[in-house]
């Protein structure tokens, strides 16, 4: 009996060990299953984050960031293709790389450097949206006004103006524009001439500085009369040679002259 009992008792731990082993095996299998599920969940989460990262920018959000965070976001000029006038206004939005002074372009968008209006941009969409933007249209109109004002200031005759228009391809030069706005009114041109004159005066200061310092400049008066208005005018012309040996003439001023004595000798001396 003791032998049988002993034998029976000795088999109990064995079956217990087997049961315990089976339990551990089942537990390990369950843990393995949970582990694989958690891995799949993390991979799915990473894919979602990646997709979210790709879609974190929209045209409205980029416009907002350019306005509100100028130290982090700015518009880079297009250095590759400038065949269209819109690239004088538009560029590519970019974000500053942390701890550096470099900027990384945000692909798929273009932004206005003036008002930060942003459009989606691909090779398929092209420049259509940018050309219709108000800032580009204003630039086109300003350039045309400046062109006509400069020509008018240089006393170009109407017949010569028509010849100029025949030679210049306005659309390729100024982009899309309204044909009705091509020829400006007298008031528009007159007002723009004042702004144009101020701009030229600032440029002349730098241009005339070197000839004046080297004594390579000649200033001469010019008296002439307008037979229609019966008014005489006094003009002053500067002639000089640049450091690159290029001959230049500049009309410094031209004002009505009401003096009685219009002989040349008095004013030349």
Low-confidence parts: 1-54
Class computed from helices, strands and strand pairing: alpha+beta
Helix-strand string: HHEEEEEHHHHHEEEH
User: How does the major sheet shape up?
Assistant: 5 strands, antiparallel
Beta-strand fraction estimate: 15-25%
Could you give the count of β-strands?
8
The total tally of domains equals 4
Q: What share of residues is helical?
A: 40-55%
> How far is the first residue's CA from the last residue's CA?
152 Å
Round the mean pLDDT to the nearest integer and report it: 70
User: Count the helices. How many?
Assistant: 8
| CA-based shape | elongated
Radius of gyration: 40 Å
Could you characterize what this model shows?
The chain is of the alpha+beta class and 269 residues long. The chain folds into 4 domains: 1-55; 59-132, no CATH class; 134-215, no CATH class; 216-269, no CATH class. It has helices at 2-54, 59-68, 128-131, 134-153, 158-167, 170-174, 186-214, 264-268, and strands at 73-77, 90-96, 103-105, 109-112, 118-120, 217-226, 231-241, 247-257. The strands form 2 sheets. Strands 1, 2, 3, 4 and 5 form a 5-stranded antiparallel beta sheet that branches. The longest helix is centred in the first third of the chain and has 53 residues, at 2-54. Mean pLDDT is 70; it is low at 1-54.
